[in-house]
Predict the 3D structure of the following.
Amino acid sequence: QIEPHYAMLDADTSFTHGAGQPLTTNPHILGYVQEQVALTRPASVYWLDGTRVERDALTQRAVSDGVLIPLNQTLRPGCYLHRSNPNDVARSEHLTFICSEDPRDCGPTSQWLHPSEAYTRMNALFEGSMQGKTMYVIPYVMGPLNSPFSMVGLQVTDSIYVALNMLIMTRAGKVALDQLGPTSEDFCRGLHAVAECDPDRRFVMHFPKDNVILSYGSGYGGNALLGKKCLALRMASHAGWRDGWMAEHMLILGAESPDGRVSHVAAAFPSACGKTNFAMLQPPASFGGWKITTVGDDIAWLRPNPADGRLYAVNPEAGYFGVAPGTSAASNPHAFAMVASHTIFTNVAMTPEGDVWWEGMTEQAPDQLIDWLGQPWNRATATTPAAHPNSRFTVSMWRNPTASPMADSPTGVPIDALVFGGRRADTVPLVLQAFDWSHGAMLGATLGSETTAASTGQTGILRRDPMAMRPFLGYHLAAYWSHWLAMRGRLTNPPAVFLVNWFRRAARDPAAPGYLDAARAGRFIWPGFGDNMRVLEWIVARTRGETGAAESLVGYVPRAGDINLAGLPGAADAADAERILNAASHICLDDWLAETRAMRAYFDEIDAHRSCPALGETEPQ
Ligand code: GTP
Ligand code: MN
Ligand code: MN
């Protein structure tokens, strides 16, 4: 499959490869780059144009610089491995700041810094930081081209790895300069340097009022690919608050039923809770005729459409930056097929044949590997994982065999259902439907997820992650919740809201309703992954008014027989399948009483932070 925006460029005969030169006369773009050159003093400046010619040339340069390691081109054509600095493998939430004049504009989930102090601190770091290096200038669009949803960004960086990732993750190059035009100054200014990659000299700073992002000292995706978490979530959530729309940590999928009707679902799960997997779901065999297509796997921009009163969504990204471990031909066949070619792998292990490997890719590891640190790894004696647990793949969304053609639609897709979900060992049933928008917003606001302690089977520590946005909010949480509630007034036909839990564990007490048997005690009840189609079918049917529900105290729940259990994996027979569903769906009133008290306590805690304390007094995140 070819990527439409690259295909378009190849066909455009009026456009020749820019060879690293600026393809714009926009004085604001040129002026911004000039200022960054004066500050960081690079040896040379390279402007990205977004062509394949350029991508291939930069890839070769990255290989000769040792930034990318070519994988076996017969086994993984167009695939490369990058090993990051071992101190730089995840987002740095405690070094991430929102910089606004008034400290009350952000918190308590985000950290505040006064803009003047932030600029002073960052300018000192960036001063002369690119000496002897090439500065890459990356114009990019977040969102489909020529869409009212879209935003243009300009990122300058000292990292060729970041440049190559941005070419996959965004619509980058000449298309962005064309969309901006020769005079507009409406673009997000982003300055980034990995520099010496020192965790003590590392910050990610956002300036919503100035439309500026400054990121120093890290090459990790969430810190360094400025279009993603920084622009598309933190800056965009702030812009949406101002302009009446929402930027959310949500996947977007299309669910086509056998009669050809398509419904769209957007779902927010905290990091590492299954968005990429759910977005690419392959229905089980008993769901012949159902087809799931992916619009996005991580971020949704949602706008009310005054014409029909519905909520429309676009995926601002053009690629997936997905978690590698756990991805296998069985758990996520589409993702597995997608990363067979033209993928950048970061911090995975390498086989002696020059292929990739990570925990969960096959049942057993190969005998010998080179681990993510570049060291020999031997299965018999290894005490550490071969791939880093947060190792990732970067791949164009158009390589997904079930990519939705609507992912390029400038108007977006109308959303029929919003879904929230986290890891909850108990209390939260497999699925419930909120009574209305406000109830749904409350379920989202109090979304909780447990840190995993899977090895011991113990219940983890519950952490509230409102709307799965805790690390990604660009303004105050209380204002965000008000914005969510107010959004209802802009929708005459709002999506239905659901809460799901794929991670409930079987009770250990034989007398408890969630008990199955000794062998399954403490284990995940629900098979998950492709079998989540069974829940998705009920959700879609609810939005179409085609199935009823039972009313419980905490929401609408499926009635007996509403969920298709044919061929449920792990079920001995039809009766056992029903026991599994009942154990996964059980609503225990004592647990929910405790849950509602905990929700109340959480709201009180946020309320106490209504005016955010100054830097130094904020809680570490
Ligand atoms: P980010 O990309 O960091 O925002 O995370 P994500 O929400 O995309 O998470 P992802 O889909 O990569 O899944 C993370 C982990 O959840 C992996 O270990 C998966 O194997 C596991 N997982 C995903 N779906 C299911 C499911 O339905 N059931 C179970 N038990 N595990 C799941
Ligand atoms: Mn994410
Ligand atoms: Mn993901």
Q: What stands out?
A: The mean pLDDT is 94. The first strand starts at residue 44 and ends at 47.
